[in-house]
């Protein structure tokens, strides 16, 4: 079944700008994918990368069943695929993800069936973004309690971030950590949040590679009395040696991966025994099958895997299908309060977000990823349309 059309969307959604790809086959079947660098700077580049890869490798009657062939042609011959970073790999991620959706829909099965079948019938989700709307530290414990009251058994926080007056978080830079009050303030926040949610709720900390390794180790040692599920991105992405050094020196498990593109970047982390949990982002590491490979590599080293998800409702559904099939699945990242932001979920029909209850994501058996675009909303945000036949 030939792919004949593509539409690339840039969807305004709060502080992020998701890049969503819809591929269409000659019989009108539609499949969705997403290039997941919607936060920070880079979504226009990702949209352009999707366009360029489609123009070169998905043109002239490519079969919807040839996702692996497209991926490998791009990787082997696109030049920037080898050693490629998130912009490059998010482009091929969106295409591979959308082609897998097409394949599943053409076969009339959910994507998790193509991944070997469902191992997990429901997925535990940890709550991120529960701090949105807080404008000062004193509001954090109450916001954390609210997330727990909403059913979440785990919350993630950024202990070093500054809460800006408009409620956004500003992550610190390595160069600011000569101010030693940063660590004291982070510990105070953490203790207050732990005290508010009690001992039964898991707390994860994302350091966003914010401190130098010596300060990271110092912070983690001082935080050791507080039960922490994992420390995320304790070192600069790509500095595997620092990651391994930190892991050896602290008692908490470490997690890494949202800024590592392709199985080749993860190989270094595994060989160096530099982390306990991998967090590949399906939408920028190379797609669903690439993330499945990374998860299998992780399994052989005894690591847990939790797909990093900081994107649109399309990625929530994609992540659900992959996580359902992973024997070493750990937690699903989720931003439950984003669905209240106009634009975040209302451009798709039947968002997974609507089915989440008590912090659990029930895995459905709808065809493909189970989500499709709401045409009247999505068509307002078309970035490019392409004829590929
Ligand atoms: Mg993170």
Key structural traits:
389 residues, alpha/beta, Enolase-like, domain 1, TIM Barrel, 2 domains, 6-stranded parallel β-sheet, 4-stranded antiparallel β-sheet, 13 helices, globular, binds magnesium ion
Would you give an account of this structure?
- This protein has 389 residues and is an alpha/beta fold.
- The protein folds into two domains: 3-108 and 373-387, Enolase-like, domain 1, CATH 3.30.390.10; 114-369, TIM Barrel.
- Helix content is 37%, strand content 17%.
- It is built from 13 helices and 17 strands.
- The strands form five sheets. Strands 5-8-9-10-11-12 form a six-stranded parallel beta sheet. The protein has a four-stranded antiparallel beta sheet with strand order 3-2-1-17. Strands 13-4-15 form a three-stranded mixed beta sheet, with helices on one face.
- Strand 2 (19-25) and strand 3 form a beta hairpin.
- Magnesium ion is lined by residues 206, 208, 232-233, 258.
* Top CATH class of the largest domain: Alpha Beta
CATH superfamily of the largest domain: Enolase-like C-terminal domain
Question: Helix- and strand-based class?
Answer: alpha/beta
Tell me roughly what share of residues is in helical segments: 25-40%
Bound compounds, each kind once, are: magnesium ion
CATH topology of the largest domain: TIM Barrel
Low-confidence stretches: none
Strand composition percent:
15-25%
Shape: globular
What is the topology?
Blueprint lengths: L2 E8 L8 E7 L4 E6 L7 H15 L9 H11 L8 H22 L3 H4 L7 E6 L12 H10 L4 E4 L4 E2 L5 E2 L10 H17 L4 E5 L6 H10 L7 E3 L7 H10 L4 E3 L5 H10 L5 E2 L3 H4 L2 H13 L3 E2 L7 H12 L7 E3 L13 E2 L10 E3 L9 E2 L1 H4 L3 E6 L2
Parallel strand pairs: 4-13, 5-8, 8-9, 9-10, 10-11, 11-12
Antiparallel strand pairs: 1-2, 1-17, 2-3, 4-15, 6-7, 14-16
């Amino acid at each position: 079944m030939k792919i004949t059309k593509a539409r690339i969307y840039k969807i305004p959604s709060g502080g992020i700008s998701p890049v969503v790809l819809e591929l269409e086959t000659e019989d009108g079947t539609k499949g969705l994918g997403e290039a997941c660098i919607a936060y920070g700077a880079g979504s226009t580049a990702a949209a352009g990368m999707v366009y360029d890869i489609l123009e070169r490798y998905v043109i002239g009657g490519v079969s919807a069943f040839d996702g692996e062939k497209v991926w490998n042609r791009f990787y082997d011959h696109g030049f920037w695929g080898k050693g490629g970073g998130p912009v490059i790999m998010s482009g091929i991620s969106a295409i591979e993800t959308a082609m897998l959706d097409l394949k599943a829909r053409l076969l009339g099965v959910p994507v998790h069936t193509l991944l070997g079948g469902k191992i997990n019938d429901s997925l535990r989700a940890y709550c991120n973004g529960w701090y949105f709307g807080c404008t000062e530290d004193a509001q954090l414990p109450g916001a954390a309690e609210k997330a727990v009251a909403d059913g979440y058994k785990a919350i993630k926080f950024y202990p070093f971030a500054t809460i800006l007056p408009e409620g956004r978080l500003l992550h610190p830079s390595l160069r600011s950590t000569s101010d030693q009050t940063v660590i004291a303030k982070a510990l105070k926040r953490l203790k207050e949040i732990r005290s508010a949610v009690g001992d039964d709720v898991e707390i994860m900390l994302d350091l966003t590679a914010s401190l130098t390794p010596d300060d990271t180790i110092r912070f983690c040692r001082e935080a050791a009395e507080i039960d922490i599920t994992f420390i995320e991105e304790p070192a600069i992405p790509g500095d595997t040696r620092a990651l391994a050094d930190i892991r050896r020196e602290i008692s908490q498990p470490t997690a890494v991966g949202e800024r590592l593109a392709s199985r080749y970047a993860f190989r270094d982390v595994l060989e160096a025994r530099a982390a306990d949990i991998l967090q590949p982002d399906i939408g920028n590491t190379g797609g669903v099958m690439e993330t499945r490979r990374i998860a299998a590599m992780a399994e052989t080293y005894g690591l847990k895997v939790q797909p990093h998800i900081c994107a649109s409702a399309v990625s929530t559904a994609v992540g659900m299908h992959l996580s359902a099939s992973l024997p070493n699945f750990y937690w699903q990242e989720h931003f439950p309060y984003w669905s209240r932001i106009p634009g975040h979920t209302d451009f798709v029909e039947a968002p997974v977000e609507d089915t989440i209850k008590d912090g659990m994501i029930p895995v459905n058996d709808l065809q493909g990823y189970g989500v499709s675009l709401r045409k009247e909303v999505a068509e307002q945000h078309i970035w490019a349309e392409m004829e590929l036949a």
